[in-house]
Amino acid sequence: TSQYSRDGSGRVCVDGIPVTELAARFGSPSYVLSERTFRSRARAFREAFERALHPLGVDVAVYYASKALLTTAVVGWASEEGLNVDTASGGELAVALAAGVDPARIALHGNNKSADELGLALREGVGRIVVDSLAEIELLARLAHEHGTRAPVMIRVTPGIHASTHEFIATAHEDQKFGLSLNPAREGEDAPALAAVAACLDASDALDLRGLHCHIGSQIFAAEGFGQAAERVLALRETVASRWGAVLPEIDLGGGHGVAYTAADEPRDVGAIAADLAALLAGALESSELPAPHLSFEPGRFIAGPSGCTVYTVGTVKTVTVGPGVERRYVSVDGGMSDNPRPVLYDADYTAVLGNRVSEVAPVLTRVVGKHCESGDVVVKDVYLPGDVAAGDLLVVPVTGAYCWALSSNYNWLPRPGIVAVGPDGWSREIVRRESVTDLLARDTGIADPVHATT
Ligand code: LLP
């Protein structure tokens, strides 16, 4: 069930707590996160794939893609719900470790990991390092030697899938920076993915090749892409077994499961996606001599996105004539592209509702905009909001749990909002403190620093 309701006075509540109360206590704008929703989406994802794949003898592991939203509290919830954690930098890895996640349940990703990041992963004993290039395989083998350990490795392959999503978040077609292609660049050559397997097997005293990884993109609704990717990666696993006699125990199919931002989005039920994959896999397993692989997944947005919303306060309201007899109402809020750059970056659509009251006044087509010095600073492009929306009203923009705080900036020196978590038993607390201008100024070492001031 949804975390949203309206109380007797028409105020939007998150798990029973009115947003007016949250804004009064924690300030505006704030990200508000429902712990119950986050946990139940994490659990639902894991259980759907377990239910579909266990009957085939396939073990399932779910890695929460922490890039979507990472704080120690959030990663703790994911871990308590039986998920592992996917990290994509030394910083993300450090947060997961600080949250007390067992290193064996952490994965490290990235197309350009530094020797320091790889060294940290080796020292801490992370469960898997997903390698992304031949150069990285060499570097990691050398570092593992130096550390006197054997690094657990997955190879990220690019299966050549054109998933229908925004170009900037599609990642399995050939012409981009991630992964090792399944197709040879020139005739007579091995595919880069095969060359990577050979390199890992050659360095087997330092590298423990656990399996293959692919990620086809993000905010994907169609099941076909996942199925095609799985088929291609399983075929590569067959090739590796027949060529080198190596049976790779694991396949990771990445994340990318879409969520509904507005009523126009119709994501398929996660149970149906899991069932489709199981059907496809049943065929592939039957026709294979190899033991079934373990399968893992890396959902980020699916879990975090719908768990969060942003609460803004309305400031200026302006009606602009945009053509003969055509008007558009602009409602400005106290945040914008600094706390949610997704509309600017990906043309992403959101919706908004009046949060502090209900209104009988007829709705008006409205553009909700931020307070930044850019005309592209849009929060919600088109939404019908009551005609009497005025300064001081609260707007709630749902589905901002993923890739909003994570992508936030201090543009125009706006301090970043805090993240308020509403707990299952009606308490609320800030799990990331709101920034102040003082916080930001503390990092400005210019004029306050005599050395810099005089040179
Ligand atoms: N695994 C890998 C290797 C990834 O690169 C990603 C996302 C995920 C898993 C998680 O994908 P998800 O389940 O969240 O779709 N900033 C963009 C999204 C970038 C996604 C990057 N990689 C956005 O706001 O739409």
What does this structure look like?
There is one protein chain. The chain has 455 residues and is of the alpha/beta class. It folds into two domains: 4-33 and 307-442, Lyase, Ornithine Decarboxylase, Chain A, domain 1, CATH 2.40.37.10; 35-305, Alanine racemase (TIM Barrel). Helix content is 30%, strand content 24%. The strands form three sheets. Strands 4, 14, 15, 16, 17, 18, 19, 20 and 21 form a nine-stranded mixed beta sheet that branches. An eight-stranded parallel beta barrel has the order 5-6-7-8-9-11-12-13, surrounded by seven helices. A three-stranded antiparallel beta sheet has the order 1-2-3. Strand 2 (12-14) and strand 3 form a beta hairpin. Helix 2 runs parallel beside helix 9 (270-286) and helix 6 (134-147) packs parallel to helix 7. It is globular, with a radius of gyration of 24 Å. The N and C termini lie far apart (61 Å). The model has no long low-confidence stretch (mean pLDDT 94). The structure holds ligand LLP.
What's the short version?
With 455 residues, the protein is α/β, with parallel strands linked by helices.
Topology record:
Blueprint: E1 4-6, E2 12-14, E3 17-18, H1 19-26, E4 30-34, H2 35-53, E5 60-65, H3 72-80, E6 84-87, H4 90-98, E7 106-108, H5 115-124, E8 128-131, H6 134-147, E9 151-158, E10 180-181, H7 192-202, E11 207-213, H8 224-244, E12 250-252, H9 270-286, E13 294-297, H10 301-304, E14 308-323, E15 326-333, H11 342-346, E16 353-354, E17 363-369, E18 378-386, E19 394-398, E20 419-422, E21 428-432, H12 437-442, H13 450-454
Helix pairs in contact: 2-9, 5-6, 6-7, 8-9
